[in-house]
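In response to reviewer comment 3 from the previous cycle, which asked for concrete evidence that the modeling workflow produces usable outputs, we include below a single protein chain processed end to end. The sequence was submitted unchanged, and the resulting structure tokens are shown without manual editing.
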Amino acid sequence: MKTSSKIYVALIGIIAVALTVIFNFLPRSTYSELEKRELKTFPPMDTKALSEGRYTEEVSSWYSDSEPFRDKLMYLSMLFKDMIGIKPSKDNVTVHLNAEAFNDDEAEADSTNVAAAEADVEELILDDNAGVSLLEGAEADSLNTSTVDAYEDNMDAVTKMANSGIIIVGSGDNVRALMGFFGTKGGVSYANICNKYKETFGPDVNIYCMPIPTSTEYYCPPSAQKYTKKQWPVFNNIFTHLSANVKVVDVYSELAKHTDEGIYLRTDHHWAPLGGYYAAKVLCQVAGVPFKDLSNYDEHVIHGYVGSMYGYSHDISVKRAPEDFIYYTPRDVEYTTTYINYSINSKYQVTGEGKPYVGPYFHKFKDGSGAAYCTFMGGDTKITKVVTSTKNGRKIIILKDSFGNTLPGYLFYSFEEVHVIDFRYFTKNLVKYVVDNGITDIVFANNIGNASGDYAAKRFTKYLTQSNGAYDAETVRAAAAAAAAKVDSAAAVSASADSSSASPASDSSAVSVSTDTTSVETPPVRKDSVRVQETVVEIIDTTKVNY
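The workflow returned the following structure tokens.
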């Protein structure tokens, strides 16, 4: 055998031995930062599954899913494909929405083919939409479409389809990853549940409907619009089906005015904190409460942020285009944040609740952290209650998905209490929660993917009747009226204070500045404070939350 052949055989043998050692003897991966998910665990022995052949399939799935150095190997694979020019074929692309990011009837739209989208992208299937008419007059004029069109016309022409149906726009440092919208429902269920809540809680609890658009609506260039559907028809359909007593919060039109600002993240499927600021501004205008602009906030920057779209798309260009994650913390207002954490299993099902504890509202992350979006409350799997120094009797619940996480921090000047509930994890009876906490306002704040389907509406419906106690309609209305009376009383006290001539030096009720968001003291218990039920606790690692 020639020397060169011997060297070749030796190299192949060394590589084979190395791979055997790596994949069979080194520690298995348990979590993928790239994919933002827990990896499969070794399945417990099941004789029935073994006899049916399912057990060996589960073992094989665990073996391939938990390979050592999984993220590093995936990165090298993406880098290699990018170097040799391997790109997903247009004809072979299957578009699907990530089930956790856009829960549209859970598994629905999980494997929507691009060809189907191309065939009829302008036609939106609406539920029960007989007689639906578009908004007219002043309502239609409020949509600044010229701003959106002008921005789209200046987009980088480089566009490609990545894995998971992600549309990659631009190049270099300006890469933007967009997630296609394929909502096949018209949002009628979402409108109906808003109506149902208004009917349930009566005239003394304000109900707001605030669906949130995704970045694709504003930043998808004409060359890629065949891979997605327009979102505005769904917004219009939702608003059309709302009862007159439900308040519309049109953030769509407000965001359209600011598309040349950083209102959406480029490397993440969420909007940016600045987008949440503009949405909170509209909400407060509709609610008739004070709102302070960004001059009253401190700006913070996390450099080198690469969000969820890198994991969804497996496109190396997203990794190479990190961005600044910019968020804002309020000054001259005191606030205390209390959490009840949920423990969840690998399927994101709630398995337990924790005891209430006081913690920071804003969490700090280092530059380059992929968990920067968890700055607000540390993630989704919890109930959050923020008591502020704003004394106006107004207490709001934000019924949200992860898009709603940016909103609460802009409401501390506007509401006495801000309660945050993620629709995927709430286990209590919401009617009882509203009564016990004297809630005066409820806002539905969900991205259009959740608002267009039935899944979120079904969850919200369940919360009105599920266990943990319930109250009859008469008790609910009485409690709401009592809460409204407190608001009137607070307004009267505020008016009286405004008319007084006390000097600033003698004002003992002046609000002190709260600058340390990492250490918060528990406020003194008031006579009318709500007792929170005690349950079992398991703290969730905030770097592994479900976005």
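The first strand starts at residue 31 and ends at 32. We consider this sufficient to address the reviewer's concern, and the full set will be provided in the supplementary archive.
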